[in-house]
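can u do me a favor
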């Protein structure tokens, strides 16, 4: 049974939607999302030898440069449920020697199928806001579980700004009318990170065609 059938919806949504649009995804979204994703990647500042996990790896636009940055002793893992997106990610990383350091896993992210405290850093771009706030907080807690205590997390996500402008309001309206198409729902990223047990190291707002996008760098709050 397909995901759409299981949920009682006739239109594809979630990873099934991404499967369908995987061939168009980069052309449709990369001109807008790419520069913001790249900035969040710079904030993560991957270092040689690190182990990094990306959740909702999509077509591998971030995973590929991450695999190059971690170099020979490092490794990267990209997780996604959409076969079409993963196939594109696989093609992208295999084009370069860095591909040998990249593992792609077809899996859901709740729970993350990885061992506790096994990664130096985690990365998410335009993925956390696909989940409603309670699930997003749970996903952030899951990421905290797989990060080493001194690890870090960088994200780019649609931002629920304190004073939404007209583009943000229009987007939210569109999301309510057609959540299967406009599937991201702006989130209070800073608040979610704090609730999930992170300290914010840096957070700034950018604009994606008038819709606020929050970039954040966070670290697990020490447990005493
Ligand atoms: C908006 S795309 C972003 C892709 C990529 N991070 C980027 O910046 O281009 C969201 C990705 O999350 C994946 N995804 C959605 N729900 C998921 C879930 N529950 N488990 C794993 N992946 C999921 C989708 O298949 C899709 O590839």
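np, heres the sequence
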């Amino acid at each position: 049974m397909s995901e759409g059938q299981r949920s009682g919806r006739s239109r594809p949504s979630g990873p099934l939607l991404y499967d369908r649009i995987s061939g168009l995804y980069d052309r449709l979204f990369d001109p807008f999302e790419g520069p913001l994703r790249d900035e969040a990647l710079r904030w993560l500042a991957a270092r040689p030898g690190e182990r990094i996990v990306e959740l909702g790896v999509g077509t591998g636009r971030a995973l590929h440069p991450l695999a190059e940055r971690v170099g020979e002793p490092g490794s990267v893992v990209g997780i996604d449920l959409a076969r079409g997106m993963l196939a594109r990610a696989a093609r992208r990383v295999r084009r370069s020697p860095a591909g040998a350091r990249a593992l792609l896993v077809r899996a859901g992210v709740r729970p993350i199928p990885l061992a506790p405290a096994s990664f130096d850093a985690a990365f998410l771009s335009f993925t956390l806001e696909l989940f409603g706030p309670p699930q997003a907080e749970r996903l952030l807690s899951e990421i905290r579980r797989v990060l080493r205590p001194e690890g870090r997390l960088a994200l780019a996500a649609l931002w629920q700004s304190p004073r939404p402008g007209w583009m943000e309001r229009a987007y939210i309206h569109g999301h309510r009318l057609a959540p299967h198409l406009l599937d991201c729902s702006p989130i209070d990223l800073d608040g979610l990170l704090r609730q999930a047990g992170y300290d914010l190291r840096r957070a700034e707002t950018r604009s994606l065609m008038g819709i606020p996008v929050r970039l954040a760098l966070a670290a697990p709050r020490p447990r005493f």
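The pocket of S-adenosylmethionine is lined by residues 14-15, 18, 33, 37, 56, 58, 61, 79-82, 85, 108-109, 125-127, 130 (CB under 6 Å). hope that helps!!
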